[in-house]
Amino acid sequence: MHSAAATSLPHATRQPTAPRPQLAPAVRERPGQDGLSWVLDRPEIGIYLRRRREALGISQEALALAAATTVSSLRKWEAGLRNPSIEGLIAWCRALDLPDWTVRKVISIVFDGIDTLQAGSWPPAISEDDRDHLDDFRSPAYYLSFPQLDVLAANRAALRWVPSLAPAQISAPRPSNIVEWIMSADARTRIGNWETVATRLVYLLRVMGPGIVPQHRMDEIFNTAYALAPKHFTRIFCASPSKTVMNDDLVLLRDPLTNQHVQYTYRLSRPNQPLRPHEQLNLVRRSNPVGLLA
Fold first, then answer.
1. Could you tell me the pTM of the whole model?
2. Helix locations, the chain, DSSP H
3. How many other CB atoms are found less than 10 A from the CB of residue 224?
């Protein structure tokens, strides 16, 4: 089978020129290059899902029953001797309680073309019609490449509320990126629940990127984020967030006029008709704010 990212990370193997925090992922110095290489574990799909089963304490017999397959078939899937059908793969993932965004990557890699994820290119192919649709939203909205979360376009509301997260100029060597931005000092002051939002974004790229986003681009993003806030980034990069954190869609965004945090929820979706090579991120003000601890 093809490979995918795992949630478990290998130990660090690097030779720093100055003392730095010990990291859980493999972070390597590469000759002739600046910065570190954030190399993540990428086992075969069968090994990845076997590790998931073992971490949950589920036997092969119990999982086969939950996935409506035979123990013999499951053993062949885990050993990489046979690929399941699309229905079998989905049932396998559901029985292991994988989140939807992880299932999407597994399907994309095993069944190329069924739900293809692409690393994208720079500069982006954003048409005037695309921009018209984005500008029609009154709340902040963005076009992003997925899964590396490069910022391809932003509407007027987004530029007004978060000017530091503007798309890069077309002439720039590479795009702006949300994972890089979230580690900036400006992001930490603008977002009231910064730790939770940063954890979500870094974990999303850490899991979804390997096997899809080129390693040099992963290194660019993670090295920039690390340089902006080494201690914060090291802690967050090595975290294994709970399902509650990953499913939370709340963003406390500071109002540029009142300087007060306002409750927003977000949605990340893909335009399907017509199919576009980007994802759309919308932030919508919560109509019935809930009480939060200060």
1. 0.74
2. 45-56, 60-66, 71-78, 86-95, 100-110, 128-135, 156-161, 178-182, 185-190, 194-208, 215-228, 230-237, 243-247
3. 18
Read off the pLDDT of residues 172-222 as tens digits, 9 standing for 90 and up. Answer: 999 999 999 999 999 999 999 999 999 999 998 988 888 778 888 999 999
Please report, as a single letter, which amino acid is at residue 57. Answer: G
* Pairwise CA distance, residues 113 & 293, whole Å: 45
CA distance 141 to 267: 10
Helix (H, G, I), strand (E, B) or coil at 162: coil
DSSP secondary structure letter of residue 69: S
Question: Hey, which residues does 177 pair with through a beta bridge?
Answer: 150
DSSP secondary structure code for residue 12 in this structure: P
Cis peptide before 256 (omega within 30 of 0): no
Looking at the predicted structure, is the pLDDT value of residue 223 above 50? yes
Whether residue 10 has a cis bond before it, omega within 30° of 0: no
45-66: per-residue pLDDT in tens?
A: 788 788 889 988 999 999 999 9
Nearest by Cα to 268 from 144, 177, 163: 144
In this structure, the strands spanning 250-254 and 150-154 are unpaired
Rounded-to-integer distance, Cα 61 and Cα 209, Å:
32
3-state secondary structure of 75: helix
Q: From 173, 188, 175, select the one nearest 149 (Cα to Cα).
A: 175
Q: Prior bond to 173 cis, omega within 30?
A: no
Q: What pLDDT was estimated at residue 41?
A: 55
Place of tokens 């690097």: 14
Question: Helix axis angle, 71-78 relative to 86-95, nearest 10°?
Answer: 90
Residue 282 · residue 141 · CB < 8 Å: yes
